[in-house]
Amino acid sequence: MASYHLSVKTIKRSAGRSATAAAAYRVGERIECQREGRVHDYTRKQGIEETFILTPKDAPDWALDRSKLWNEVEASETRRNSVTAREWELALPSEISAEDRSQITRNFAQELVSRYGVAVDVAIHAPHREGDQRNHHAHVLTSTRKLEAEGFTAKTRVLDSAKTGGVEIEQMRGLWADLQNRALERAGEKERVNHRSLETQRDAALERGDQLSAEELDRDPELKLGPAANSMERRAKAMAERQGREYKPVTERGAVVHAARQARAAFREMRERLDIARETYEAERDAGQGRVSAGLAALRAAAAKDREAGRPGEGFRERLARVTGQSEDRDDAPKPEGRNYTRERLKEIMEKDAGRGGQAAVHKLDGHSDPELGNEPGREESKPSVNQRLKGVLNKPREKLEIEDERDQEKEQEVEKDRDIDRGRTHSL
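^ that's the sequence the OP posted. Answer follows.
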């Protein structure tokens, strides 16, 4: 599935960066920075598929020389905290060909040149050999000043201003989404990218009545695997495919992500089956069929979805049970089969909570209701709280309190007599 990414960053001297170093690193070349007197050599860098420079039509010829171009960019900025370059980082669809990826990147870079009059240096990178093999991307480095016949001139304030910068970037984000979607359509892909925020996409889905898409967009973000776990899971998945067996996660984070994805897929399938059954039932009823006949037709239509998907051996109920059964612990300690350790841990946490509330929660987790909790044989009475004991004392009748006071006084008198007798014995000795 194609994913959308476009980010805009700045190269600032205040952060200790330079345009010459940024350009050399992204294109994998050697550039000597005349302002700093340093050589930035990245000729050993791998994974660079294509590089090119685009400039306005009246730009000088030296602008096509990468070293000269970025040294002139540095020379045109005189302040210690100047922003010398701007980088547009683009994710390229892995579903399209390398030629199409190059073409849509070039079209985007040309739009930057035409719109803002800047010089643009492009580097298209292949996925890292140890990373996600779908991660084709491009680094588009632009000057922050217009490039004209006499060289670099005015700053592109339209991108720097708080009032106009966000609007301009949002328009370029829309352009990049359109370029990708046209390329995906030419490649015969059904999926499309969307540059809008999740909130905006969710609201649009609700407006068109697509409740399922709105719920999918409203879900919590997925747990991030990280580079190491991601690499391990990809290797495990590739090995499972080669061996013709089912993929099983090898890391704890991978198991959580895999289970969440399967649960979402099962939920989507359940919604689709319900929609098919509802539509079939309504159509049969409109055609004059009775409720029983329409209901049977709806059930047959829902069951046909599994056959179309090529899963006749395992029904939806079995797949859902298999998904929900993957919440067991994944440590190396041997455990008896058939136990849900996540459930047991949850019960232990609940049981630590003193009082009826914690016990009631545990019994509800086990499928018992509140009346059953009170009638459970052998259950110990919960200890009354301090507040309850204080209320019991205050609410006692006055006669009972006086009787208890008299008993206390008698006990004190007996204790005093014992003490006097002990003192007398001591003096007689």
